[in-house]
Specification:
With 356 residues, the chain is an alpha+beta fold. It has one domain. 34% of the residues lie in helices and 32% in strands. The protein is built from eleven helices and 13 strands. Strands 1, 2, 3, 4, 5, 6, 7, 8, 9, 10, 11, 12 and 13 form a 13-stranded mixed β-sheet that branches. Strand 8 and strand 9 form a beta hairpin. It is globular. The chain starts with 9 loop residues before the first helix and ends with a helix.
């Protein structure tokens, strides 16, 4: 069946009569230490048109038991994250223990939330200048990359002394759960300073391996949704260039191996199709500490496995807004944080006044 490949073609699909392919991913995951399971997870992602829901369920009973229990409260739960681009909703909903309803939830406009979450220290520290300053357009991808390269040059001596990164694509494909997958390995080594008392050649090793299946039915559905979501939640520039650019530039300053590993999964910021590069089928990360720091815990391992991938139609109720439970407003919390920044400025001014 023919499927358009241009992003943003959902409206055309509805007019032309082509069927849209809904997509469901369901993964199981766990965290273990020395091979002993500690926490288990189940993550289900549903995409349909301009809607997406991620449902994360977790069970930390083993961890709780190892610390003497939780006093009768089950260390289990389910969290829904619902994105509805058509009517501008971003919902975080904590479900009840029986998973039949919602106990608490946050429901905020998707298009303005990112801008509201950015705490502008510049406006608090120098409000007079900030009031007169004009917002500066975001830097281009090339400018961010150049600044990131300069930052990498400044930090290269420390990075060479204390870290190593390795990334490569595995030469052979592998069939997992009936899907042909490409494999990748990324390893990071971090040297522990000798004054930590663990010797002069002690390293923390983080090794990851992941397998991705591309060109699956419905991949274009996910790409279309991601493109629209990125455009909707993109926050306008503020009067602080540092606030606008710190995260993109820090990303560009990461080692090439780390950037390439991330790009294999989701592409690079600034690309028109920034988002998943396929279906994650297997993912594993193992953290190995020096024996002196293990304290009997051994290696810590996170692993995830795709249980099911489906193109079955997803009912609209999967993306329904909560009708029960307590709605939590985030604005009072944001205001407390803004006031904290202003109070911090006052304390700094008072402290300097006393010193001088």
């Amino acid at each position: 069946m023919h499927k358009p490949v241009l992003f943003g073609a959902l409206a055309l699909l509805s007019l032309s009569g082509f069927a849209r392919a809904d997509v469901t991913w369901e993964h199981s995951a766990s965290v273990s230490s020395s091979g002993v399971p500690l926490v288990s997870f189940n993550l289900r992602n549903d995409w349909s048109g301009q809607n997406h829901r991620a449902r994360l369920s977790f069970d930390a009973t083993n961890v709780a038991d190892s610390f003497g229990g939780t006093g009768g409260q089950a260390p289990q739960g389910t969290l829904d994250v619902i994105e509805r681009l058509g009517d501008d909703h971003l919902v975080f909903a904590l479900r009840n223990p029986t998973n039949t309803g919602v106990t608490q939830y946050v429901d905020e406009p998707y298009s303005t939330l990112q801008n509201r979450l950015r705490l502008n220290f510049f406006e608090a520290l120098d409000p007079q200048f900030a009031a007169k300053a004009e917002p500066i357009p975001s830097l281009t991808v090339e400018q961010r990359r150049r600044l990131g390269q300069e930052l990498r040059a400044y930090t290269k001596p420390i990075r060479d002394a204390y870290s190593r990164q390795f990334f490569r694509a595995l030469p052979q494909t592998r069939t997992i759960n009936g899907l042909e997958c490409r494999g990748y390995r990324y390893t990071s080594m971090t040297k522990i300073p000798k004054d930590a008392g663990v010797g002069t050649q002690a390293w923390i090793r983080t090794a990851s391996e992941f397998w991705i299946a591309s060109n699956q039915p419905g991949d274009e559905e996910i790409a279309s949704f991601t493109t629209q979501a990125n455009a909707l939640k993109s926050a306008p520039p503020t009067v602080s260039m540092w606030l606008n650019e710190v995260f993109p530039i820090m990303t560009e300053a990461m080692p090439d191996e780390a950037q390439n590993a991330i790009a294999t999964l989701i592409g690079r910021q600034g690309e028109t199709n920034y988002g998943f590069r396929g279906t994650p089928v297997q993912f594993a990360v193992t953290v190995s500490l020096p024996p002196e720091l293990q304290m009997g815990a051994g290696d810590i391992r996170f692993q995830a496995q795709l249980k099911r991938r489906s193109n079955d139609a997803i009912p609209e109720r999967a993306f329904a807004l909560p009708t029960s439970g307590t709605r939590v407003q985030i604005e009072p919390f944001l205001q407390i944080m803004r006031n904290g920044i202003k109070q911090g400025r006052t304390l700094i001014q008072q402290g300097l006044g006393e010193m001088l």
